[in-house]
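Following up on my earlier thread - several people asked me to post the actual chain instead of describing it. Fair enough. Here it is, all 400 residues.
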Amino acid sequence: MNEEYDVIVLGTGLTECILSGIMSVNGKKVLHMDRNPYYGGESASITPLEDLYKRFKIPGAPPASMGRGRDWNVDLIPKFLMANGLMGLFEKRRFRKFLVYVANFDENDPRTFEGIDPKKTAMREVYKKFDLGQDVIDFTGHALALYRTDDYLDQPCCETINRIKLYSESLARYGKSPYLYPLYGLGELPQGFARLSAIYGGTYMLNKPIEEIIVQDGKVIGVKSEGEVARCKQLICDPSYVKDRVEKVGQVVRVICILSHPIKNTNDANSCQIIIPQNQVNRKSDIYVCMISSAHNVAAQGKYIAIVSTTVETKEPEKEIRPALELLEPIEQKFVSISDLLVPKDLGTESQIFISRTYDATTHFETTCDDIKDIYKRMTGSEFDFEEMKRKKNDIYGED
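Reply from S.P.:
Thanks for posting it. Predicted structure:
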């Protein structure tokens, strides 16, 4: 412990583990600690099922109908990964023309613009050009481009077109869905990046109490644990380790639902993502539904896990997600949680303490990826280069 590190990381949530792996691959000396005895932090996978009952203070044991407890790996905060970065597409000629335009669009080739200036034309005008209706616009903006509000409509269209293009290319690559989900739940991902960090010399310590983050002249110089001090130049941590340096900007309600059936009208899919656009339910925020099953080794045979989430807008959060819960009926067991949305009060450039954001209501990783890239840029002063990361990884693992 009494050593000096380039970077100390506190917490083993996915954001922290990915940054730990990246920094180790970049040649930094990394120490990674967590007060918990398990990986994942706020985004952990809970197993066995009995532990989920205890965590949510559900009286009694799970019924025998739910199978063996160790067959369950329940993600507290599920996130699908865009396969190249489930829903059927509308069979409308106008929408098909729009998708053909998107597929052919190349921001570096003006011949593909068809009278649209990608740096100046608002996305609202692009929709109007193709005469798309409001329902199609809601679907496109929130389920394909993955925007959480409609602010993008009045922004230059280039980014939105590229987002839709990513969705289409991902769908083309994997057939029925553009999304991926790891077997045994998301808890496998933090451990994977932890192993990557270890291969490059990173040191991991679980079940390690954090007594103090030592700051001198406004800048972090180390972390104290069990009477010992590890010195560092930079610190990465989740909000729970620095409660005085974060602020609450909202809340998220999540309901984990155990089902004995697939969701209706999904062709009996063993996994799916449903996004209910805000306009469709007279809200400011979308409602998200993520469903996975025994096919992903996260539930007993014949069982399904559906998780509903949204940003809280009223004093009755459970009522806000009723439209989504109605899609899931009958529900065998529910686990309800309401968590604060926390963000850092500053950029960390002076203190060199870089704090991640808590996970939002979305069921995809786009906002988490944005947070990771933002922290990386603030720490290093440069944009994250994924191709460079792959090259360095291949030095160890060889080509994919």
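The longest helix spans residues 158-174. That should answer part of your original question.
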